[in-house]
Design brief:
Low-confidence stretches: none
Helix content: 40-55%
Oligomer: single chain
Order of helices and strands: HEHEHEHEHEHEHHEHEHEHHEHH
Structural class: alpha/beta
Distance between the termini: 42 Å
Shape: globular
Strand order of the largest sheet: 1-2-10-7-8-9
Number of strands: 10
Mean pLDDT: 96
Length: 325
């Protein structure tokens, strides 16, 4: 697969001598969702399946650029604050580049599989006694001291890489959809999508969907109290919609049941807004940002439990006919 940087080199802040640190990111599937579209009364619904990126989330699009640029500038280490997906991505690309990675996670607020993934990738993981905003402030201070390069979405190289999702969607569809619908945690992806649309000369609406209770939502990937890119989201004139956890869970389960895609809860935020009728248009693209294996604890909590049966065909047939739950 052509590395994302090579595919979009003329649209990214890289030079001829920039080293390319790639794990085969980008070129993710844009999947038609006809069963969901019918249930939602839409002519067309498309799902940008970013979970197929190397570490299982959209963060890899930006991280390939951020780490490549950091290595090219002579960085000795990278740092990030994270609710999970940035952590795994930073750890993976830093390992690929041969750089140490320092990850600051709010204690007890990150899904276990994401922490395990990050640890296995060799990053130094520190659990901060505080929330994401406090962890990010500490990461920014260390970056200012010159010991580490910050690879959160405050790094413009990260956002430059993430805008390529817009390019891929428009290329595959042949034109822009009626709206792009994406989860809203810190707002970096909204900012990146807006940048991509500007570069294409498009004014397609962006609908950014946040949790109604940002600080307590079950969707840990968007559990961010104070979005770092709130001003950029406003500047992008994105429509901001808030959904509660019950709506998130219903959309999350429907996506899995009707289209066979298992995502993490935050990734269903866009679908939750559409289900409630908050998104205008007949041809919509929803970005599914992260894989369900990122948050198996939540899946265990909400998925129907397995039934226990004897190894008898009649008992198995009877149990198979019973409703789930």
């Amino acid at each position: 697969m052509t590395p994302l940087i090579e595919r979009y080199r003329d649209r990214l802040p890289v030079g001829r001598r920039t080293p390319i640190i790639s794990l085969g990111e980008g070129s993710t599937p844009l999947l038609a969702a006809p069963r969901l579209a019918r249930s939602l009364g839409l002519s067309e619904l498309w799902l940008k399946w970013e979970a197929s990126n190397p570490t299982g989330s959209y963060k890899d699009r930006g991280m390939t650029v951020a780490v490549s640029k950091a290595l090219g500038a002579g960085a000795e280490a990278v740092i990030c604050a994270s609710t999970g997906n940035t952590a795994a991505s930073a750890a993976a690309y830093a390992a690929r580049a041969g750089l140490p990675a320092l990850v600051l996670c709010p204690k007890g607020a990150v899904a276990g599989p994401k922490v395990a993934q990050t640890r296995m990738l060799g990053a130094k993981v520190l659990e901060v006694r505080g929330d994401f905003d406090q962890a990010l402030a500490a990461a920014q201070e260390l970056a200012r001291r010159g010991t580490h390069v910050l690879v959160n979405s405050l790094n413009p190289d990260r956002r430059a890489g993430q805008k390529t999702a817009v390019f891929e969607i428009v290329e595959e569809l042949g034109k822009a959809p009626d709206a792009f619908v994406i989860p809203y945690g810190g707002g970096g992806n909204t900012s990146a999508y807006a940048q991509g649309l500007r570069e294409l000369g498009l004014e397609t609406p962006i609908v950014s969907v946040e949790a109604a209770d940002r600080e307590r939502t079950l969707a840990s990937a968007i559990r961010i109290g104070h979005p770092a890119h709130a001003a950029a989201v406003q500047e992008a004139t994105a429509q901001v919609v808030a959904v509660d956890d019950d709506e998130l869970v219903a959309a999350w389960a429907e996506l899995a049941r009707l289209e066979g895609l298992f995502c993490e809860p935050s990734s269903a935020a866009g679908l939750a807004a559409i289900r409630r009728g908050d998104v205008a248009g007949e041809r919509l693209v929803v970005t599914i940002t992260g894989h369900g294996l990122k948050d198996t604890e939540s899946a265990e909590r909400y998925a129907p439990p397995p039934a226990v049966v004897d190894p008898d065909p009649d008992a198995i047939a009877g149990a198979a006919a019973a409703p789930n739950g």
